[in-house]
Automatic annotation (TrEMBL):
Residues 1-23 form the signal peptide. One of its GO terms (biological process) is polyamine transport. It holds the Pfam family SBP_bac_8. This is ABC transporter, periplasmic spermidine putrescine-binding protein PotD (TC 3.A.1.11.1). PANTHER family: SPERMIDINE/PUTRESCINE-BINDING PERIPLASMIC PROTEIN (PTHR30222), SPERMIDINE_PUTRESCINE-BINDING PERIPLASMIC PROTEIN (PTHR30222:SF17). Spermidine binds at residue 94. It comes from Clostridium tyrobutyricum DIVETGP.
Amino acid sequence: MKNKLMRSLSVCAAMVFLILSFAACGSQKSTQSSDKVVNIFTWANYVPDSVVKQFEKQTGIKVNYSNFSTNEEMLAKLQATKGSQYDVVICSDYIIEVMSKQKEILMQPIDKKNIPNYKNVDPQFLAQDYDKQNKYSIPYTLGTQMIVYNPEKVKIDIKGYKDLWNPQLKDSIVLVDDPRIVIGMTLKKLGYSMNETDSKKLNQASEELKKLKPNVKVFDADTPHNSLINGDVSVGYMYGSQASAAVKANPKFKIVYPEEGMNSEEDNFIIPVKAPHKENAEKFINFMLNGKISNEATTSNEYVNTNKAAKQYMSKEYLNNKAVYIPDAELKRAERFKDVGSATKTYDRIWSEFKQQ
């Protein structure tokens, strides 16, 4: 009888423990969802401090800002945490395409009813191939690359990619250190897509790159404009924000939109599948899509603005900056990077051979 009673008491105690545990979990979940924080994951300085401070003051929500260097690094972190550590990630279009094809999708659909400023996004930047319904992503900015050169040192008229192969430019070019961008430029020179997967065309691009190597003096992902500014090189192929920095340092520098057609990359807001503060994530995205805030962000980071409500706030300096305010006609014919699947290995091989040449 005593043993039976003890067993009964043990069962009751276990049930009470389980009930209390579930209650504690529910309480923890409720507390977590109401935390006044939002965890942002993107490149360094991509959201200006001034904007972050305004959001915190307006909403009372603290921004925890974490950085990554590449989209691939971001994806590895999301995979490691199973999409549970961050609330808002700002990343590029092609990596969103990659993530959408994975068995376990690390993004959650965005409820646009909770983001009324979604209406401010310029329609030309919506419904792209990487997310045709904008199910998982909302555009933040657009980046592109261009040629910038010093006309006092370069005696040829540079109009496009093909001119970078001119022997007169021997040992005088800086290239942004990125395989898709440089190989893509080469494919465009040959009349192919920047997303080419045909092995014969890629091998042709590989041979073409070998002809370019004597002209290349510097590879630099982060500050290629510095080599141009300090006179180490006279020509550069780099991001618009970097070209803008070069021209600000020396207004005599010329910016060229390559006649073969530019590349463009959209950076987007996404919400990870297990974001701990989904409501705060929606508030942050909606805040960033305010026209005035959007203009402040792109004025600071000098990327192409994708927000139609921002134009009324743009300064003459921004509107006259060829590096960051690019005509719609150029943007509409620009080609976007796509996931090239198994051809990625070929791109890696071409790049490795090119740099080791």
